[in-house]
Amino acid sequence: MGTGKSYRSARVTAAAVLALCAAMASGVVPAPAHAADTVRGLQWYLDSLKIPQAHKITQGKGVVVAVIDSGVDPSHPDLRGQVLPGHGVNAAAAPDGRRDDDAESGHGTSMAGIIAGRGGSTTRELGIAPAAKILPVSMGPRAASIDMVLAIRWAADAGADVINISYGGDPARPDPDLTDAVKYALGKDAVVVVSAGNIEEGDRQVTLPANIPGVIAVSGLNKRGSFFAGSVQGPEIVLAAPMESIIGPAPKAVSPNGYTVASGTSSAAAILSGVAALVRAKYPNLDAANVINRLVKTARDAGPAGRDPQFGFGAVDPLAALTRSVPAVTANPLLGTAAGSTRPGGAARPGDDDGPAVEFGVSNRAGAIVQVGLCLAVPIVALVILLVVLRRRKRRAPAAVTGPPGPPPGWPAGPPGWPPPAGQAPPQYSGPGYGPPPGQPAPGYPPPGYPPAQATPGYPPAGQPAPGYPPAPAAPAPPSGGPGWPGAGPGQAPPPSSPQQQ
Q1: Is 73 a catalytic residue?
Q2: Environment class of 382 (CB within 10 Å of its CB; exposed 0-12, middle 13-18, buried 19+)
Q3: 202 vs 495, which has greater pLDDT?
Q4: Which of 70, 93, 205, 221 is in Cβ range 3.0-4.6 Å of 171 for a Cys bridge?
């Protein structure tokens, strides 16, 4: 990692603000001729973002915003009591960060004032989150890439809720150490907000570290809410915020009137950092991933539908971010596939749903074939199981009975095939088509050794004895069992035959 690369501010300083501000510095404040002739009047973005309404909900109390910059002047009236003891990452910086080493624009002091200026009157800077505290992390008058790495890690370890970086480096020189530092801060539950860069300063792409996944890269809006031509654009842009003619406090050594006006994505990032502080104050139990998600989902889609290179997911909407219902997420939506995703209609609008709960994709053809095969196998297996179950049920189901009752089990039906084979008793049921033909005895009935219980018309034939009667001496007992047979001993009459009479 190089140590000589200078990180540059993404802010362009204008000339003196107004004669009114000069009068303020001398202690003489004449009655303004117009409302715009005040610090508050120059803060046009407060009204366009509905910050006064947002302040009725929260002002950022309890939130710490780290400003990684040139240091912060804590003696400015708009910042008195707002600046915590911080850190200087090199020998040229103030050890506690409480000195602004930018002799040209007082860049760090301006960023701090835009974020957390105390306000109190029309002649004072009112920050986006005036109840938040500023943690200055100074890189001194000239920052190198190693200074940025050290600053981000220190801010994360210090417990900053939001880290504002209104500096940018060369996007054509990837920096693994800087990427690791950003990942470290995200892992420490910090919301990292970075300015995207300015075309006026020679940038044509989103600068480093704004192009590192997971951070909120901020582009700029003009006073009409359109994309500001001086801002860079690119696929890494996440959100847009006002950047045109933004007033901010400055050390007296830089501006005798105590203020500068500038147009740059530095100011846009500071405004976005203030909004993030409001959200963290309103929802103290939300982690950084859900704060980022809330800012993204409630943004106003200001460009082409979906995420676009100018506005990202849309223009930041502080009031919506504080009030709208937003489902929770389990990971930073700017990381992984979620970072490059788009959705019809762009950023969230009232009534939008949240899309499918689960999505999956494949990265190669073989994987796609496997997934299709699995999808087809599921219904096929289900169909086979269903057929087997139905077949088993069919086997267990009893056959339906139609027509007159059939003969007992083991007895043939008549008249077809009548008489039954010799030795079998006739069926004991009646009805058309059952039993022997009229006038004929039932073959083999009664069984041998059984005398008839009574005379039955037509049995035995006239003049003939009953076959096998009287029984022979010492005849064995008749067999027992069988339908209608009591299985009694010798001498007992068999059950009556069919009630059919011929």
Answers
A1: no
A2: exposed
A3: 202
A4: 205
